[in-house]
Every structure is written in C-alpha cells, then in structure tokens.
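job 3f2a | input accepted
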Amino acid sequence: MRSLLLLLCFVAPALFAGELTLVLDIQQPGSQSSIPAALPTNTRAELTRELNELFRPANLNLDIRFKHEVSAGESFGDVVVVRMQGTCKMIAMPPVFDERGPYAWAHTVDGRVLPFVEVQCDKVRRSVGEARSMGQKKILDGDRLMGRALARVIAHEVMHIKGETTG
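job 3f2a | predicted structure (167 res):
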C-alpha cells in the first residue's frame, strides 16, 4: 500500500491527470437479485471514497458507475471495466486458509495491458474477515472494510493499466 501511495504522489501525476470512468460489472453467483443487494450502500460508499482518496494526488477525477447505470450509446474518454466475481459483500463464512493466487488482475494481450479488470470478491472478503478477526472490527464495520479493500485492489490494477506495467 505504501508503494502505491508513493507511486501516486511522485510518478502518477504525469500519467493520470484527467478523467477516468470505472464501470463496475458485478457478477452475482446464482442470483437475479438487484445490484444494490450485491454491493451494500456502505461498501459502495467506502469503495468510492477510498478510490477518490487514493487517486487525489494524481489529479485523476473518477466517475464510478455500475454497469446498469451506463446508457446505451454513452461514450467515455478513458474507461476501465471492472468485473467483480463472487460475493462482494460481507457474510459469515468458515475460514479458508489456502489464499494462493491474485485478488484481481488486468487482462493483457501480446504484452499490452488492457482496460479490463477481474476482481475475485471471495478472496478479498476472506482477507477482510481475517483482518476483522484480528482486531480491525473496532475500526470499521465489515461492509465499509470490504469497500476499502475492494478499492485498494481495484486501484492496484488501475495502476497497471495506466502505467502499462505487468507483474
């Protein structure tokens, strides 16, 4: 996290200044329920707040929308589509100790980083649950902590996209 903030403060202003639209496409497992149910209000508010805070030093203005909020034919100058898979809200679940693999990734083709991100909400949620069990409960409620964690994972991938870096 510290390296992300340093990069945003010193390198990112040249790369990022301007506007960026993030389109959140939540893929709910086995449900046809509404998007607000997929991402509680507190989670969305904290995700938005944290992303704006992280990118403020880079003078990057974010427009964060759910896919269903984008009108047909609407166009954007700079856009990143973030597909969020799994359960993106805090729910009680037994701990799982095998956390290998990434929380998210940006797609690449022929070494070129594309503006498409995949987030594994279940992995993020398990990490948030672990943090809460280690004393973070007092700082934020679970939904807000989930929003903050999702924002940091998304910001990391946006850095890869905007900086055209892999790895």
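job 3f2a | The radius of gyration is 16 Å.
job 3f2a | closed
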